[in-house]
Every structure is written in C-alpha cells, then in structure tokens.
Specification:
Number of strands: 7
Bound molecules: zinc ion
Structural class: mainly alpha
Pfam families: TniQ
Strand content: under 5%
InterPro entries: TniQ
Protein name: TniQ family protein
Shape: elongated
Length: 465
Amino acid sequence: MLAISAPLPDELSRSFLGRLMRMNGVAGEKDMIERLASFLGVAERDRRKVTVTELLSMAARMGPENFVCQHTLIPLRRSITSYLPDLAHGAPGSQGVLFLSGQRLIRPIPYLCADCVRADVDRFGISYWHREHQLPGVLWCARHRTPLRYADAEDALLWPTSQWVGDSREVGAEWFNELNEHKVVRRFHAIIDGLMDTHRPYPVPHVSARLRQKARAHGLLTYSSSKPPRGARLLSDVVRDGFPHDWLSTVFPELVAKAPEAQLVQMDGVLYLPNSSAPATVYALACSVLYDSADEALTDIATGMQQGMVIASGGRRSKVSDEVYRSAYLVHGGVYREVARQISVTPQSAAKRLQQLGLPDLKERGWGPIRRALFAFFVSGMRLEEAARIGGISAETLEAAIRQAGAGFVGVLREMDATTSCRSAGKPRVQPLSPHQAKSASESWQVIASLSGATKRSCKSGIEG
Ligand SMILES: [Zn+2]
C-alpha cells in the first residue's frame, strides 16, 4: 500500500516524485518507481515500456497529456520541433520523448522563490518546486517580484524547496532592477509563456518559413554563408545587440561570445535550416527581436496552422504527383516553361519540383545545345569542357544544368548537413551560466575590454528607454 497525493499547482513532476518518496518513507528513487509501478498494477513484463512520467500521471490520476502539459517542461521543450511534430504532448506514442525528456530541466540548476516557499507552506503545509521558476531567462518570481535563488545540488528537486532556502544563492536584486523594465526581455518571457501553453508542437518548417519572411522584411540575411556579404545583418547579431549580455549569458552564452558579423548556426540556422529544430529558447530569442510584441509573434507562428497540422485552405489544388511532372517533362522535351503551362503552376514552382526530381531545364525542344552537352557529359562520358564545346555552350551553363540534375543528391547532402547542425544546435554547446557566473564572466570581460579599449554592453547599457 502506498500513500498518494495529488500534484500541487504548477509542481514539477520530479518534485511530485520526491514528495511521494517522503510520504512513503522511501529513500531511493529507483525503489520508489518500482513500488509505484507495482502499486499501480503495471505488470513486470511491461515495466520497461512505461516511463516515470506516465507512472506519475497514473499516480496523480491524470491522463498523461494533462500531466505532461501541467507538470513537465515538455510543452516548452517540444513547442517547436521537427521530431514527431504531429504528436500532442504526452499523447500515445510519446514514450521515447518522455523517456528522454519527461523529467529533465531546461536550465542546468533548479531555481526557487523564498516568498513562494513561505506562501506554499501557509497554503499547502509543504513547499515544492514550481515549473514557472525553471523557465529559461527567469531570474525573479513574477508573483512576488523578488529575485529567485538557485540550488546547485543534484537531486535538490526531490526535496522540499524550504530545505534549500538557506543552502542556495540569491540571484541578486540588481538583476531585477536592471531587467524588469527591459522591453525585449519582457517580450522574451511572454513568448516563452505562450510556448509553454502549447498542447502539441508547431513543425519546424512552418515556423522557419514564418521567421524567414519576417527576417527578410527586416533586411536580415536568411541563408547560410561562410563569408556573409559586407554589411549583411545577421539575426544572431540583432539578438546579441537586443539583449543585455549578462542576462543573455544565462540563456545562450555562445551568442555573447560570438564575433560580430559571423554566422552562428545555432541561432542564424533557424532561418535557413527548415528541417532541424533548435531549442525553444533560440526561437523565443529570435521572435523577441523580429516581432514588436509577444502576441504578434505567437499569432504569426499560429497563422495557417492548427498546431501540428497545416490547414488546407479551401479550394487549394491537391499536390501534383512526381509522376505527372516526369511525364510532362518527357512530353515537353525538358522545357520548364511548357511543363509549368501544362500543369498550371508558376514557372518557379515547376522549376523547384523538376529540380528536386533531378530534371534540368533543357530550354528548347529537340537536340538543343544543353541537351547535346548533357548527353556528351553523362552518356558519352566526355570531360566537362569538351561536352560544353559539343553543345556550343559555356562550361558555366553546362555546370548549372549538371547542378540541376544533381539536385536530388544535393537535397540528401543538405539533409546530412542539417542533421549534423541539428545535433550541434539541439543544445547550446556551452551550458547556460548561472547569474553569478554571468556577472563574474562580465567582470573579466570588462577587464579585457578596458585593456583592449573595447566596450561591452552591460545589463545597464542594454536597457531600452
Ligand atoms: Zn514567489
């Protein structure tokens, strides 16, 4: 027999687990999970298929979707994702996600509010860890307007927050004073709150397209470039300049460390890697500088979507199959403009689809110059320059046609690159700094800056009027 209680409002699932352990006098986490499984009637053979989050939701007598949305950080973590974007948070099929992330924090250390500790004890007789204090960039309690404290201890979440008030560091009142009125920081918090309210993900390609459109309107560079054109404005620079650096170090320190005008794939990639998700924090940073308000950002992301699903607008034509494109290409001798006319699409969309199929634009019917050159190169095995001469075209024109023919392979290459970038973008390589680490990093930078004559934005200089 086990004593079970309900999770408290906004209580983190791991805090709830710790409470169950204490109520039942169980010291080991693993032991508690086993006892919970057997108490809830999970058969031994099924034990490994059921995640801790699901067990806790059963103990809480809540459906897994409700439990995940109310007691874990998954709604934020998976608010924008390319991994199973159709899967609602906690829905059947989420075991892999719950196994990996169900109990995880987003920041490396847990935060608490000393005033909430007192209020919780008054109201519930026990203090607990709140989800809202664990969100990225949150350094003070929205309810009490006081700086948070943070506990640098493994398994702190399994104990009541009251035990950590004396054994934790206070964020420092100066952060509150400096950041509370910062418009862009406030916008970031509001966007994070909005993403926490999601019940299912927004797919990355959709969000990426919205952000790209907005970035273009701001004149930002929206493609990958190892050497961005002179004067090009990068999203990563706009974010870096839009936030106080001390605060930014507690969220995404690599942005502060990066050189101006150098692309940072983890940030700039949200505009040009439509298939690899970045952490929600990165999207929230991007939205904070691209949009004038959190509402505008959240509405724009939701536009054209029921979360997780693109809404088909009334009367939109159904997608033309690859087969139709291939046969139209054959019938029209490889001339793009004629294919477009037959299928009734714009020449641009016909070109995009045909290139995805590896079918280059032959420009004219019959044995025109490009077809002659391509035949010489691909079928007769001639060298590029020779084949171009046979076609009577320049080597550059032939190269362009070869590139179109190889677009299918290029797609695969890009996908490989995106996967690699996604892995590195999935998590900032440098752990977010704690507030005290951020301040001391800031001090050492200031020493370096004063020696080199450079300047650095501090919290204060970052504040908007
Ligand atoms: Zn509080």
